[in-house]
Write a structure and sequence with these properties.
alpha/beta, Rossmann fold
Length: 326
């Protein structure tokens, strides 16, 4: 018969085990698939889960291109990824998802340099910044949605060419924050002010990622190109740290959260790897995933009319830069 103290020790031990395994870590996706000869493009691949995913792709033999705004950080990250994976086929390119000129220049350079694109990982995102773009939309929504929308469209010709020889996947890193919806088209023009408004706009952009994924799937149904959106979990990353956690009190809160709740980037990248590599989810193209499994979306994220409306708006906003890539 166990004493009360022994029962308490057993209970606490089980609680700590559960907390570490399911809250701080989560599932790890293991694949024996090799990606030699495959090309992977990861936006935001110089930090956080983008960098962690880049290392995993490189370990599997892929050619990895990381794209981010900061050229110096990207060059350093590319070397670190190459060293960690023992794969020298890792490169960096400069890309600013807020600026359509930068996206167009990037796409043109990528088309010239790369013969194929097997995996497009739209991973980069921002949180907690304010301001309006020169084309009249909140910066968070612009960077998190309009940027990836334009980039994907400008790279579509390359992916279509690749799909004739080998399957192609498009992975859009969304978030459980999509539940902050429904999508309010009028709100997208307003300058959010403060933490609460910033989170709301972030949620709007993550819901847009899901709509984009499903509508993109509808338009690619005849091609060997599949699309997936996902929630990586609550991750230790640089997302929002420049604004939201710059003050000493908020910095302390973040440190405590890092220790108790937030996942390491390696674990945050696991669902990205699952959606990229698992052959059992081909028939689930256009769907949403979390913790390396399919997750049913809330009804607000399934509205096809809103999905089509967002696509038309995105085309209108980016039409000056769109070319015949389809």
């Amino acid at each position: 018969m166990l004493s009360k103290k022994q029962v308490l020790i057993v209970f606490l031990s089980l609680f700590v085990y559960y907390w570490i395994k399911y809250v701080k870590q989560g599932p790890v996706y293991i694949s024996d698939k090799r990606l030699d000869g495959k090309t992977v493009l990861i936006t935001g691949g110089n930090v956080g889960i983008g960098k962690a995913a880049a290392i995993e792709f490189a370990k599997l033999g892929a050619k990895v291109v990381i794209a981010s705004r900061n050229k110096t950080k990207s060059l350093k990250a590319a070397k670190e990824i190459a060293d960690a994976s023992e794969n020298r086929n890792v490169f960096s390119m400069q890309l600013d998802l807020e600026k359509f000129d930068s996206i167009k220049s990037f796409a043109e350079e990528f088309h010239k340099k790369e013969e194929n694109l097997h995996y497009l990982i739209n991973n980069a995102g921002v949180l907690g910044i304010n301001g309006i773009t020169d084309y009249g939309f909140h910066r968070v929504f612009a960077i998190n949605h309009f940027g990836p929308f334009l980039l994907t469209n400008l790279l579509m010709k390359k992916m279509k060419e690749t799909s004739k020889k080998s399957p192609v996947r498009i992975i859009n890193v969304s978030s459980g924050a999509y539940r902050f919806g429904p999508l309010d088209f009028d709100l997208l023009h307003n300058e959010a002010d403060g933490l609460v408004s910033g989170y709301v706009m972030y949620g709007q952009s993550k819901l847009a990622n899901i709509y984009f994924t499903s509508e993109l799937n509808n338009r690619l149904i005849e091609l060997d190109i599949t699309t997936y959106s996902l929630h990586p979990g609550v991750i230790q990353s640089e997302l929002g740290t420049d604004v939201m956690f710059s003050s000493p009190p908020m910095s302390i809160i973040r440190q405590v959260a890092n220790y108790l709740v937030l996942k390491d980037a390696y674990y945050g990248a696991q669902t990205t790897m699952y959606c990229s590599l698992d052959d059992n989810i081909i028939q689930l193209s256009g769907q949403y995933f979390h913790n390396c499994k399919h997750e049913e979306l809330r009804e607000l994220a399934k509205d096809q009319e809103t999905s089509r409306k967002l696509w038309k708006l995105s085309e209108k906003v980016t039409q000056k830069y769109l070319t015949d890539n389809w």
